[in-house]
Design a protein that fits this description.
Elements (H helix, E strand, L loop, with lengths): L24 E3 L6 E3 L2 E3 L47 H5 L5 E4 L23 H12 L8 H10 L6 E2 L7 H4 L5 H9 L5 H11 L12 H20 L5 E4 L21 H12 L7 E5 L6 H6 L6 E8 L32 E6 L6 H19 L3 E6 L16 H11 L7 E5 L5 H15 L14 H14 L13 H6 L5 H17 L2 E2 L15 E3 L8 E7 L3 E4 L13 E4 L3 H9 L2 E7 L19 H18 L9 E7 L4 H9 L6 E8 L14 H7 L1 E5 L9 H7 L7 E3 L5 H7 L1 H11 L10 H6 L1
Parallel strand pairs: 4-5, 4-6, 6-11, 7-8, 7-10, 8-9, 10-11, 14-17, 14-18, 18-19, 19-20, 20-21
Antiparallel strand pairs: 1-2, 2-3, 12-13, 13-17, 15-16
Helix pairs in contact: 2-12, 7-8, 10-11, 10-13, 11-12, 17-18
Catalytic activity: N(6)-acetyl-L-lysyl-[histone] + H2O = L-lysyl-[histone] + acetate
Subcellular location: Nucleus
Keywords: Chromatin regulator, Hydrolase, Nucleus, Repressor, Transcription, Transcription regulation
Length: about 775
């Protein structure tokens, strides 16, 4: 067999050859520095006459005039080797394909160096140079002699990455994803004088455009797109098993008709569309996974109605405020999770938009395990393209996230289980040179077959988990793997269904009405508390009671065991526990009037269609509960002149209402005692106006805190909660609210009776209650 001369990786990290001939671009014969407009451009120097763009040339790579689908079956002759990449055919037949790598120094010509002595921009040419240098130092590419490389390939064909030559993309290739006018605009940059480019860059650097341009921007952008094309085509054609394209400028923000966000041409969509056109039999469905910290608005919009391209983006959304979103611009492309595609592409667009920065390994691994891999497996792509921005990596200040190289390796490894391992990784963002190099190295090593390193996954952020639950709910109508455990609320509403917490409260009202003749308290509010009317129940003739028990509590606790196969919940496998009723029963028997204030975790609205709605956050709950308890005090409780003793009881998160009432109303002289049961936030009671409030609260309260509460896990926290502003804190032996209320019932009831007047503490009969 005659072995074709393989490509060679040179020791030079930065050889540069000009693309085309222009009057303003020359090569210095002495040192090889690029000279533009008479000024040296110190990007790099050449490495000798035997190299082209830092590599040994390995044959034609830019021929797009024929149908390349024939390359898939190339190599029937034992003595032939592929003309495109030069990898031995007998190794391809045995499945011993290498990992490809596409790199070209000419992409560094797009630089901000035209516009000042100390130019600085996050999207700097050093990004790809550092990655390539890291690959070489790690031994992923071979820089020795050609003869040695031939011997190594014959004995160990997958030891090194195989060079995929980059080339300029053609106009026809670019326009498969972009408007011709946009191509012409980028092309026109190559003929503009420096002062116009400087003015244009200053204008484009504002707002969402966030872009600089130079005299060599057009050339670099063509090679970046061409590199993505050749990388993906080499994988589909079976010349390499997978590949890493170290390319710039990036592309995923570039729209159909304009550039933005450091991006000129959208490299990945261009490559994807060309692969679909050139290899229709073997590359029909493509998964594009975008883990750049910014949403790939350009990719989303180019494939939003395409049923054969599944686009999944994991990014920081921050309620639309994180780039490329702008809350003051309603026309801004949106990375919100509600954008699921349109027309035939409905369900083929998936946005996992984090609520904030600071996400790390736990969140990204959870996103892959819960969303990405199940949907990708169901989609069953023929090719996977990763828009690999590394600006979510730990150390990148622009992204502000904490994804480690090990996590990138594990995500890559999971993607390699798809499409028979045909994975093309194309560089996007990432602006910390150390972080981007280490992360890219971890990905490349995984592509080459090294197992991902062992990693310890931290605890998943609670809000991030809610984001994933919402994504599941939005995608459930389109993917079978997302349906278990997700309800179609719109269909349930058509059937006249109601939320369970409304049913539970109605049942409580009926029970308390029949047993204790309790009635809803009238709340004179048109909008704010319209939903609270049935949440406040009182015993009859409460205005004449001598003693009052005011209970502000969470809804009953629900426990259920879902079916392990379909996640269905059956009523006979569900239980409701309500610890409050036993105290109401006791209070009525002791002659107390009772005010029962139920604080739902969420007030239902008829228009709610989300399958999962999180409970109110602290701020929303504080606003509503404060207004509610103060309204009840001002309009009812303080007007009962005959009341001698008032006991306040807070249960669960709703005990926030006790705190807010004590702080906002001067009522401590009328309160005989406070009892709280806490398994969530432990809240201090302190007033800037009443300096004696904390001391009073300490002397007149019992605060039972769950056994597993975080305050007991640290000695410093334990000492802190023993201070007077937290009340008299008692550690319970149980964890649930109903369990604590039952465990401490006798002690609490005795403590209450010791603090109230001696009159009317006898048992109240049924006849007495009916007479009242």
């Amino acid at each position: 067999m005659k072995l074709q001369e393989p490509p060679r990786w040179t020791d030079s990290d930065s050889a540069v050859i000009a693309v085309g001939a222009r009057p303003d671009f020359t090569m210095d014969a002495n040192d090889g520095d690029v000279v533009m407009d008479g000024v040296e451009h110190p990007l790099a120097s050449t490495d000798g006459p035997s190299t082209t763009n830092g590599f040994r040339d390995s044959g034609p790579s830019g021929d797009t005039s024929r149908d390349r689908s024939a390359d898939v079956d190339a190599g029937d002759d034992e003595d032939e080797s592929d003309a495109g990449v030069g990898y031995p055919v007998q190794h391809r037949r045995r499945g011993l394909l290498p990992t490809g790598c596409c790199y070209d120094d000419r992409m560094k010509l797009h630089a901000n160096a035209d516009f000042g002595p100390n130019p600085h921009h996050p999207e700097d040419p050093s990004r790809i140079e550092h990655i390539m240098r890291t690959f070489k130092r790690a031994g992923l590419v071979y820089t020795g002699s050609d003869a040695d490389l031939i011997r190594i390939i014959q004995s160990n064909p997958t030891k090194y990455m195989w060079r995929i030559p980059a080339r300029p993309a053609t106009r026809e290739e670019i326009c498969i994803a972009h408007h011709p006018a946009h191509y012409q605009w980028v092309e026109s940059l190559s003929t503009k004088p420096t002062h116009e480019l400087r003015t244009l860059s200053a204008k484009l650097d504002q707002g969402r455009d966030s872009l600089y341009v130079g005299s060599m921007t057009y050339d670099a952008a063509l090679i970046s797109a061409g590199g993505a094309i050749e990388t993906c085509k080499s994988i589909v054609a079976g010349q390499v098993k997978n590949a890493f394209a170290i390319i710039r400028p990036p592309g995923h923000h570039a729209e159909f008709d304009h550039a933005m966000g450091f991006c000129l041409f959208n490299n990945v969509p261009v490559a994807a569309k060309i692969c679909q056109a050139d290899y229709p039999e073997v590359c029909r469905k493509i998964l594009i996974l975008d883990w750049d910290v910014h949403h790939g608005n350009g990719i989303q919009n180019l494939f939003y109605e395409d049923p054969n391209v599944l686009y999944i983006s994991i990014h920081v959304y921050l309620n639309g405020e994180f780039y490329p979103g702008k809350p003051d611009n309603p026309m801004t492309p949106d990375g919100g999770i509600e954008h699921c595609g349109a027309g035939p592409g409905l369900g083929k667009n998936i946005n996992i938009g984090w609520h904030n920065q600071g996400m790390g390994d736990a969140e990204y691994m959870a996103a892959f395990q819960k969303i990405v891999m199940p949907i990708a497996t169901e989609f069953n792509p023929d090719l996977v393209i990763v828009s690999a921005g590394f600006d979510a990596a730990a150390g990148d200040e622009l992204g502000g996230c904490f994804v480690t190289p090990a996590c990138y390796a594990h995500m890559t490894h999971m993607l390699m289980s798809l499409a028979a391992g045909k994975v093309a990784v194309c560089l996007e963002g990432g602006y910390n040179l150390e972080a981007i190099s280490k992360s890219a190295l971890a990905v490349a090593q995984t592509l080459m077959g090294e197992p991902p390193p062992q990693m310890e996954v931290p605890k998943l952020n609670r809000e991030a988990d809610r984001v994933l639950a919402k994504v599941r709910a939005y995608q459930a109508p389109y993917w079978e793997c997302m349906k278990p455990g997700v309800l179609d609320i719109s269909k349930l509403q058509e059937l006249g269904s109601v939320r369970l917490h409304d049913v539970v409260r109605s049942a409580q009202r009926q029970t308390l009405s029949e047993k204790y003749f309790m009635i809803p308290l009238y709340i004179q509010r048109d909008v704010a508390f319209k939903s609270y009317e049935n949440q406040v129940l009182v015993t009859r003739a409460i205005h004449s009671a001598k003693k009052l028990l005011v209970v502000v509590h969470d809804p009953p606790e629900l426990r259920t065991q879902p079916d392990p196969l379909n996640n269905m919940v059956e009523l006979h496998n569900s239980w409701m526990t309500d610890g409050v009723v036993q105290y109401i029963d006791w209070a009525v028997s002791k002659g107390f009037g009772v005010v029962d204030i139920n604080v739902p975790h969420y007030i239902s609205n008829p228009e709610d269609t989300d399958a999962y709605i999180p409970r109110m956050d602290e701020r929303a709950m504080q606003h509503q509960v404060q207004e509610l308890v103060c309204y009840i005090w001002d309009n009812y409780l303080q007007l009962y002149d005959g009341v001698e003793d008032i006991i306040l009881m807070g249960v669960g998160e709703a005990y926030l209402g006790i705190k807010l009432l004590l702080i906002n109303r001067d009522i401590k002289l009328r309160i005989s005692g406070v009892v709280n049961f806490v398994n969530g936030n432990l809240r201090p009671i302190k007033s800037d106006i009443d300096n004696d409030l904390s001391h009073w609260y300490k002397e007149n309260s019992r605060v039972f805190v769950a056994k597993n509460h975080a305050c007991w896990q640290d000695a410093d926290l334990t000492r802190k909660v023993m201070k007077r502003r937290f009340g008299t804190v008692i550690r319970s032996n149980v964890n649930t609210l109903a369990g604590m209320m039952t465990e401490h019932k006798a002690d609490v009831q005795k403590w209450i009776l010791d603090r109230v007047s001696d009159e009317q503490q006898g048992e109240t009969t049924e006849d007495d209650r009916r007479a009242a």
